[in-house]
Amino acid sequence: MLRFLTRRKSARATQPTNGGACALASCHTGARATILTMACGDADACRLRALGLCEGASVSVVDKRHCMLLEVRGSRLALGAAITAGITVLPAQS
Question: Which residues of 38-74 are buried (b: 16+ CB within 10 A; e: fewer)?
Fold first, then answer.
């Protein structure tokens, strides 16, 4: 049993990290990021892509009070916490 736990621990240590990726909901006001994945419902993902919020798009967090106000390709979108929690982004280096 101890050998199994030791092997498992070493395998976990060699796994690659996420490279700084985080949920869009954890970004602060003024942050810029690139969208990596969108883990929301198919209808929500389709609508967001139609509005310009898709994988590879650069977003800027304009405001974060009751909802998250984003600037994407010259447009502003307001998204709720449930949707922004499912969007994974790579924050831009400052």
Answer: bebeeeebeebeeeebeeebebbbeebeeebbbebee
